[in-house]
Hints:
The longest helix has 16 residues, at 142-157. The strands form 2 sheets. Strands 1-2-3-4-7-8-9-10-11-12 form a 10-stranded mixed sheet, sandwiched between helices. The protein has a two-stranded antiparallel sheet with strand order 5-6. It has 13 helices and 12 strands. It folds into 2 domains: 5-70, Orthogonal Bundle (DNA polymerase, domain 1), CATH 1.10.150.530; 77-356, Aldolase class I (TIM Barrel), CATH 3.20.20. The chain has helices at 5-12, 21-30, 36-46, 61-70, 142-157, 178-189, 209-216, 233-239, 242-245, 248-262, 280-290, 315-327, 348-356; strands at 77-83, 89-94, 100-108, 111-115, 119-121, 136-139, 163-168, 201-205, 223-227, 266-272, 295-301, 332-334. Helices cover 38% and strands 19% of the residues. With 357 residues, the protein is an alpha/beta fold. This is Probable dual-specificity RNA methyltransferase RlmN. It comes from Paenibacillus albilobatus. It is found in: Cytoplasm. GO terms for molecular function: 4 iron, 4 sulfur cluster binding; metal ion binding; rRNA (adenine(2503)-C2-)-methyltransferase activity; rRNA binding; tRNA (adenine(37)-C2)-methyltransferase activity; tRNA binding. Its cofactor is [4Fe-4S] cluster.
Amino acid sequence: MHMNDKDRCDEMKPFIYDLNLDDLQAWAKENGEPAFRASQIFDWLYVKRVNNFQEMTNLSKELRAKLEDQFQFVTLTEITKLESKDGTVKFLFGLHDDHAIETVIMKHNYGNSICVTTQVGCRIGCTFCASTLGGLKRNLTAGEIVAQVVQAQKILDQKGERVSSIVIMGSGEPFENYEATMKFLRIMIHEKGLNIGQRHITVSTSGIVPNIYKFANEDTQINLAISIHAPNDMLRSKLMPVNRRYPFEDVMEALRYYLAKTGRRITFEYALIGGVNDQPEHAQELADVLKDMLCHVNLIPVNHVPERKYVRTSRNDIFKFQKVLAESGVNVTIRREQGHDIAAACGQLRAKHMELR
């Protein structure tokens, strides 16, 4: 399929969602427009949530033409939509360049949570995860991450509901796409836009040490979650090759800095894998590492990924593991599974789609 010149030109235009309010103000100034035009554009994008520039009816025709000429909207084409019995909806969206990403809307008793993706694929290589199959294809722009939330909000608009929280736990490692992730976060929390409460947003990392320090210094109220999955260096390296680059102790040291700097509780994500990291002695070792930290452990019974040979931890072993942590004074919960009937583990839908192509 050959691209015509218009398509090629569109490919190179920046996404309008890539711009925060300051960027839009700078753009308005450069284009001889008053600063308040930027606020109007921002309002059209995030409050009225229009689909194209022509709908921005309080802007002059000339200004709309200029926007049309210089920017494009992110096209997220729905390839697959799966709805779970528990209300979870999982989307596989096609991007402008034939790549695909997953976004999930989860229903909780406290509202709607959106799980967004920051990269196409992932290079971290965790051995129990489907996102990493096929490696990393590219980073998403800030606008492509923003578009996932806007698209989800447009879907919820039809029911008069709103996005109440965001988790950055889809495919990819957000801290390997740090600048785009931070720009996305600042657009999300802006009071003139979607105005998502900072404490209702969680960013999850596998432990990219330099950017844990950077994030600690960002002065936000956004929550940090860390995928730990093992209580020591040797086992973690087996499960998570990234541990060879950023060893366990370095990660823990960065997290201690984060705690000292922010005073904000850290969530440790721990995927339980049958017979690998789910025994009482692993729980005790983890409890010893975490005992003096302000933290919460989220136990995740691992989804069976057909390409991997891992088995699920038995219910009995899950509760034993939880009991050891709780008795050592560690705050711990077992993640309530959502979307189990629709392959809702990160990367599973995309992996299937890639196989069929």
